[in-house]
Amino acid sequence: MNHARIEKESTQPEHKYQLLKAGQQAYEVAAQAIREGKIVVMPTLTVYVVVCDAFNCNALNRLRAIRHSPSNKPITIVMDKTKIPKYAVIDERQQRIIELFSPSPVSMYVQKKEQTPLDSATADSDAIVVYFQDSPIRDLYECCNMILAISSSNTKALPAAATIEESIKYFGDDVDLYIDNGPSQGNDASPHIDIRTKPVESRRAAAHFSFDKIKAILAEHNLE
Question: Membrane-spanning residues where (predicted)?
Answer without folding.
Answer: none
